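Report of the visiting student (M.T.), summer placement. My assignment was to run the structure pipeline on a short list of targets and document each run. The first record concerns Putative ABC transport system permease protein.
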Amino acid sequence: MNPLVFFKGAWNALLKNKKRSFLTMIGIVIGIAAVSTIMSIGRGFENYVLDSLNPDEGELLTVDIQFQADDPDWMLETNEDLFTDMDMRMIENVHGVQSVETININSEYASFDTTIDGEENYLEASLIEDSGSPVVAGRSLDSIDNERENRVVVVPYSLIESQYASEEAALGKGVSLGDQLYTIVGVSEGDVDASGILAGFLPQEIEIPKSSYNRYHEEDTIEDQISITVARGSLPSDVAEESVSLLEEEGTMRDRGTYTHFDMSALDDGLSQVLRGITLFIASVAGISLFIAGIGVMNMMYISVSERTKEIGIRRALGASQKSIRAQFVLEGVMMTSIGGIFGYLFGWLFSSIASFFLPFSTGLDLFTILVSIGVSALVGLIFSYAPANAASKKEIIDIL
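After the run finished, the structure tokens were exported:
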């Protein structure tokens, strides 16, 4: 049978019952509109998140390689360079490397050994840029201390109580940190367990301005990470893997620990998969309405088959095969749901466009969403109209007449 005749017959059958076809189609429109809206917003959010993680146009991607010692205590105590000049020159010769620089990922904290009242103390220092924690005497550190590189410190009272009778008595006094003298401007409460059973085992925590530390203790900074700027046209993952392999074979610290790498492209891929999975899951939940709409399609098709029993008998008498009868009714269901899918996507695009006015990212036409919307709607029509179409094709001429 001519395919054009099939389509014309299916279209005429839908027009013959306009109201019923329209009401059945509404369920498909609502379901597809919900799914396409969620997917459009979800993919827009995915692009927004990934764009915020990636460099701006014109900037180059970077990968970070970090060294982690097998013995953490050695790493805290050593003054050796974890990445030497020879390591840096070696990495610079790797294909795809634009430049290399060392960075210190522990830039918010520092450590000191100091002697107070004849006893040696190990101190952990928080490097403050803006405002420090509350104090019980004196004042907290602020941004002015950081800007002026003031050698001032806030200490817990448990650290200096053996020297001073009260918190106020310690204000204005000096404490040696490394080879530099700092003035105590504030006294904090310190750790709750500072005088408990763990006293002497846990390090005391102090606060100093970050800029002061960078100026007066630069030689104490342990740089345990390098940042590689990747040249255009090279894959960050390839550059990172080749650099790590080279360091594992010839790196200065290869016998003391391991090298690991991180590149933004790996994060992008993982995050993209997570966001896409969440979007598809929510869209699938919204797609439950399509199942309900599919039941409506099946019900309509069964009614249509029962009403057109005489038509089926006449076509069978004129030589129409069971296959052609089945195809005729399946095509009617697929056409109806496909048209509903198209309108559903248009409504979904309209809703997502309106939502973009209230969101920090934009949504728009997306080929993947279009294909999913139309494909799912056509699949609903195929699945839920097959049983009625099959029932129509199995009607015998003698029973009909």
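The chain has a mean pLDDT of 78. DSSP finds 15 helices and eleven strands in the chain. I thank the supervising group for their guidance throughout the placement.
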